[in-house]
Design a protein that fits this description.
It contains 13 helices and 14 strands. By secondary structure, it is an alpha/beta fold. It folds into four domains: 163 residues, P-loop containing nucleotide triphosphate hydrolases (Rossmann fold), CATH 3.40.50; 57 residues; 55 residues, no CATH class; 78 residues, Ubiquitin-like (UB roll), CATH 3.10.20.30. Strand 8 and strand 9 form a beta hairpin. Bound molecules: guanosine-5'-triphosphate and magnesium ion. The site of guanosine-5'-triphosphate has 18 residues, from helix 1 and helix 10.
């Protein structure tokens, strides 16, 4: 992942993808733009909440990010999201523009699969009642697999001929095929290592290809389920069924519509809502807030009882955190002054933050951020010199200062 991470949001029509995306991107606080000049129409900037380094050093009051924002040590770091249009069964063979939508997915590093657990929409997203959303989890994975498999099998004959003629390794041959998904040799090797007893590539039958593609998907597209619409009365039984059937999947319960509702009331001054938590203050708690009429008061009570107190939050921020965790992302702070953590001449600290994969070397971080310039030294907390191949981990080599070499004449 030698660029900024990209999280794809997938699911069938009407599962709540756009609502989820809006609730992750609508930033009402003063927010800096994201450092991208062109943003494609289906991309949006979301904000991932992390524990900011400023809290580690008691410098919360001086923390002023260049991008995103930081509130009392909780930092909201921009992260790119990709809204993939609704996929329907048969998408891999082109149904409902499925091919085009699946092509959009290529660039994603992780997926959030939004599942409508209310059972009020069928496989195509049409209104119904009592639909079993367990099916959606399986068919969506199958669509992605069949699409990747289809792309591979179309050319299988010539792939094998070239593989044998050039005496390439399976990793080399597959890397050439999976390059379009942004996969490098390391990722392909990791996928192959997940498939036991794999014969030489020229002997693979279609069952072998399926196993390989499944493994490739697991490493290329780690997926988090957003079990959405938990505010609906039928959601409970469907959630239990899904968790029972898929105990090892990463799943987060969400009510995206509730998140949007609370944010709207917060913007209008009726409530003070602490995002990602169960805390909603009203005029009863703070007279500075606008008073609520009975109807709104009742709706807030319901949201508290049915969502916030039961589940601890609307789940929307947590789903993005789960996707970042599936990718093993670590916030790395680059500073000009390693002793004060200031970014420029002003007093503000930790102005720049980037998300990189845990284990990325300090050298790679430098290249990612600084480009091809020659760096004389890299320092971390306490002014300690970091070795170029030191890995980044939370709390470890995650605050860095690059000293540029004087330009040689
Ligand atoms: N009850 C409930 N309804 C929701 C929730 N999230 C979304 N919805 C509703 O579900 C419907 C579809 O939501 P969208 O966000 O447009 O769904 P989508 O997945 O983007 O749909 P397509 O763009 O057609 O693929 C809308 O009527 C939303 O208001 C939720 O958390 N609870
Ligand atoms: Mg939509």
């Amino acid at each position: 992942m030698p660029r900024d991470p990209l999280i794809g949001i997938v699911g069938k029509p009407s599962s709540g993808k756009s609502t989820t995306l809006n609730s992750l991107t609508d930033a009402s606080a003063a927010v800096g733009a994201f450092p991208f000049t062109t943003i494609e129409p289906n991309r949006a900037t979301g904000y991932l909440q992390v524990d900011c380094a400023c809290a580690r050093f008691g410098k919360q009051s001086l923390c002023k990010p260049n991008y995103g924002w930081c509130e009392d040590g909780k930092r909201h770091v921009p992260i790119m999201l990709l809204d993939v249009a609704g996929l329907v069964p048969g998408a891999h063979s082109g149904r409902g523009l499925g091919n085009k939508f699946l092509d959009d997915l290529r660039q994603a590093d992780a997926l959030i699969h939004v599942v409508d657990v209310s059972g009020t929409t069928d496989a195509e997203g049409k209104a119904t009642r009592g639909y079993d959303p367990l099916q959606d989890i399986e068919w969506l994975q199958d669509e992605i697999r069949l699409w990747i498999e289809g792309n591979l099998l179309k050319r299988w004959g010539s792939i094998v001929r070239k593989h044998t003629a050039t005496r390439a390794s399976a990793v080399e041959t597959l890397q050439a095929q999976f390059g379009g998904y942004g996969a490098n040799a390391k990722l392909v090797a990791r996928a192959l290592s997940l498939v036991p007893d794999l014969p030489p590539l020229e002997q693979w039958d279609s069952a072998c290809v399926t196993r390989v593609v499944r493994a490739f998907m697991a490493v290329k597209f780690p997926t988090v389920l957003a079990l959405n619409k938990i505010d609906h009365p039928d959601a409970d039984k469907n959630v239990s069924k899904i968790l029972l059937r898929h105990p090892d999947t990463r799943a987060v319960l969400t009510s995206a519509i509730t998140e949007l509702f609370l944010r709207k009331l917060d913007r209008q001054g009726f409530v003070r809502y602490q995002r990602g938590t169960e805390f909603v203050d009203t005029a009863e708690d703070d007279p500075a807030l606008r008073p609520l009429d009975d109807k709104l008061q009742q709706r807030i009570e319901n949201v508290r009882d049915l969502i916030l107190y039961r589940f601890g939050s609307t789940g929307v921020m947590q789903v993005l955190q789960a996707a970042a965790a599936a990718l093993d992302l670590v916030p790395v702070y680059t500073v000009k002054n390693i002793h004060t953590f200031a970014g420029g001449s002003g007093p503000h600290v930790f102005r720049d933050c980037f998300l990189v994969k845990r284990g990325t070397s300090v050298r790679s971080v430098a290249r990612l951020i600084m480009g091809d310039v020659t760096i004389a030294a890299i320092e971390t907390v306490g002014g300690v010199r970091a070795a170029e191949d030191d890995p980044v981990a939370p709390g470890q080599n995650d605050i860095l200062s690059f000293k540029l070499a004087p330009r040689s004449l």
